[in-house]
Every structure is written in C-alpha cells, then in structure tokens.
Amino acid sequence: MANDMLWAKGLPLDAAIHRFTVGDDPWVDLALAPHDALGSAAHARMLARVGLLPEADMKALVGALHALHDEARAGAFTIRPEQEDGHTALEAALVERVGEPGRRIHLGRSRNDQVQLALRLMLREEVLKLGAQAVELAGAFLDFAQANATVPMPGYTHMRRAMPSTFGLWGAAFAEGLLEELEALRGLWARLDRCPLGAAAGFGVPLPIDREYVASLLGFSRVQRSPIDVQNSRGRHETATLTWACSVAGGLEKWLWDVALFSTEEFGFLALPDAFTTGSSIMPQKKNPDVVELARARCRELRGLAKQVEEIAGGLPSSYHRDFQLLKRPTLTALGSFRELLDVLTRLVPVLKIRAEAAARASDDTLYAAHHAYVLVGKGLPFRDAYREVAHQISDGNFHPDRAALTATHLGGAGNLALEQIRAELSTSRSWLTEIHRTLAECAGRVWQL
C-alpha cells in the first residue's frame, strides 16, 4: 500500500494512520479531477516549452490527460483508497496509459501547488456558474415585479403595517440586491484570477519554469507571485467565495421568510402551487411549504459551512499544513448546496401566486398616515405639526386619507420602479460572465489541442 503514494520511500505505513490521514479524499477529489487534469496538461506544455520534457512525451501526456479529463467529467474516473488522493490516482493513470512520460509529469511542482491550481480552476468554474444562476434568478424577480408592478400590498417595519407598497416594489428589491451581488462578484473574480502553479511546496523550484506561460494557457490574467502566499491563500479564496455566496443567500433568506409568512392563512397574500408543497402524514388538509423552509435552512447551512472553512484555515502559521485537506469537503458541499438553492428559487419565483384581494384588505387607511401628513405639509403646515395632526386623527377615529393624493414617483419608488434600468445593468453582468466563460473555454481548447 505505501508504495502507491507519491511520497513513498519503501517504508512501512500503519493502516489506521493511513485511513485517518487519507480521510475522504478519494471521494472528495473526484470533483477536482477534471481540473487537475487540465492544470496538469498546461504544466506538461510548459515543461516542454522550457526544455524539461521531450515534445513527444508532452503530446502523449496531454492526450492521455484529455481522455482522463473527459472521463472525470463523465464520472468514470476512480480513485482507490490506497492511492490516497486524486493527484496520486491521476499520475498512476498516466503511467498506466503512456508509461515513462507519466513518471515525468510531477517535475517542477508539488502536490501543494497542484491542488491549489485544481482548486482555483474549480472555484473559477463554480463562480461563473453561480453568477449565471444569480442572473437568471434576478431576471425572474424582475419579471415578477413587472407583472405585478401596481398590485398593492402593505409594507411592514417591525413586522407591523407601515406604508403602502406593491408586489412590484417587493419583487424589484430582490432583483436589485442580486444585481449588487453580481457587481461584487467582479471583485471576487479578481481575487481568483491569479495562477498559483510554480509555487511548488511554497518556496519555488530551482528550475527554469515559465509561470507566466502556464497562467496564460489557463486564462489567468496574472501569476500569484509569492510562493509562500500561494500556500497562505489556501482557505482564503475558499472563504472569499463562500462569503460572497452567504451574502447572496442573506438577501434570499429574507425573501423566503416573507413568502413563508405571507402564504400563511393569517396573511393569505401569496400561495404556492401544489407542486411546490408537501403533505402531512397525519393531517389530510395540510399543504406544507417545505421547499421554502428547506431553502431558508440552506441559507443558514451556507453560513455554517463558511464558518467551518474559516475555522479550519485560521490559527495556523504561514506556509502549507495538512490541516488544509479538511477545507475541501465543506467548500464543495457549500457550493453544491448553493447551486441547488439558486435553481429551486429560479423555479419558484415565476409560479408564486398572488392573492390580490387579501393583500388589498390588509392595506388599510393607516398605511397612508405619512402620505396624509405630506398632504398637510403641501398646504403649508410644518411637518412635525402635520405628523401630530394625523396622529390625533387616527387616535380619534377620524382619519380618512385620500389614498390617491400622493405616490412615490422618485427613482425606485412604487411609481417609478426603474425595472428597465435594472434589466439593462443585469444584461451587462450577463455579458461579462458570458465573455469570461467563452475566453476560458477557448483557453482549455488550446491546452488540449495537439
């Protein structure tokens, strides 16, 4: 068993220690395998370019890695427990398929920067997918807002009726929030857009490697220069990515809370389609909003997983430590859970049913108290006096506002939702994501081309 390891020196290895140190890497690393294959192909091309690998060996390796990449994407690549991790399994597969060149692939790198590159490539891909999903969900909120722009509903503060609102104003809020998150995504992308390969164990290598060439091949705009910082950043980029995801989820959690509340019999403003509800094993009448509740729980789960990543990565000296191995599972779990959350909400928003009559009944005259105070201000009364006058009218039961007297027509108000402006900015984010995806696909194509 010990001789299967990349670090094997022919010494004995305790089986229990092996199981403990390997952990669940043989399963977790399957998600990184296609990225590891792509990064390894770029590495082989670089070695050939600088004269450290024969051209024929490079072509054999790139061809085999392309096949392994496709197998990993299709779920056909396997990692045996005795192989310890995906890097070992990948190199073993190369030796099996192309022979001696497979034993040359690890020249000029360590598993430390190899896994960093695979993780960076994976995070880039996931961020682009999540960004595209956020765009689609924002579009769904915009469509909802547009379709219900003038349908009235109460606006709440402190969970109490406050001012008149509309379902359009409510829906537009979540589109706007996602738009801001998409703008923040560019900052996250800039952090991920640097190639770590060449750092090796954290101190570089005494070989004439070309780190800039590898970065260019893989579509990175720059090299992560400091080899020590490459190792220090293990966990930093995972945390940054999950922090962004948690921020997105924080806004969506508010929407989910609203839906859960507004769809109760006591409110009755909203209704879920039957296909989005579940039943009770004892109460025949129940149609439970389990999807809303579980989606809300996913938002909290994300925060827990992000905190787990932060705790594992924190409190360590500089450079590499085996602790980092435990970062992979919570990171991948969080990303998968977040993808499912965005997918489910994008399906839910368009089919959410509005019960306009119930919302209208809840929109009583007291919602227009501030509006009526402004009417009095328009007649010359100072605002504080108008405020008190309206308070007295409400207290005395003589409050009868003209609901149509005033409307918020300023930018973003109920009378000016600026939906087309939001849609145009959303289109800009979509184009940015599409262009990056296209560029990276072209880069991968060039890596594989023989």
Brief summary:
With 450 residues, the chain is mostly helical. The protein has helices at 15-22, 25-28, 33-49, 55-73, 86-98, 111-147, 167-192, 211-217, 227-232, 236-262, 290-313, 328-348, 356-362, 369-378, 383-396, 419-448; strands at residues 152-157, 160-166, 270-271, 353-354. It comes from Hyalangium minutum.
Would you kindly provide a written description of the structure presented here, covering whatever features stand out?
By secondary structure, this protein is mainly alpha-helical. It folds into three domains: 2-107, Fumarase/aspartase (N-terminal domain) (Fumarase C, Chain B, domain 1, Orthogonal Bundle), CATH 1.10.275; 120-362 and 417-445, Up-down Bundle (Fumarase C, Chain A, domain 2); 367-396, no CATH class. The chain is 60% helix and 4% strand. It contains 16 helices and four strands. A two-stranded antiparallel sheet has the order 1-2. Strands 3-4 form a two-stranded antiparallel sheet. The longest helix has 37 residues, at 111-147. The two termini are 36 Å apart.
SSE-based structural type: mainly alpha
How many separate domains?
Answer: 3
Shape: elongated
Largest sheet: 2 strands, antiparallel
Question: Please, what is the average pLDDT?
Answer: 95
CATH topology of the largest domain: Fumarase C, Chain A, domain 2
End-to-end span in angstroms?
Answer: 36 Å
Q: Biggest sheet, strands in spatial order?
A: 1-2
Identify low-pLDDT runs.
none
Write down the Rg.
28 Å
Number of helical regions: 16
Report the CATH architecture of the largest domain. Answer: Up-down Bundle
Q: Please write the string of helix (H) and strand (E) elements.
A: HHHHHHEEHHHHEHHEHHHH
At the fourth level of CATH, the homologous superfamily of the largest domain is Fumarase/aspartase (Central domain)
Strand content: under 5%
CATH class of the largest domain: Mainly Alpha
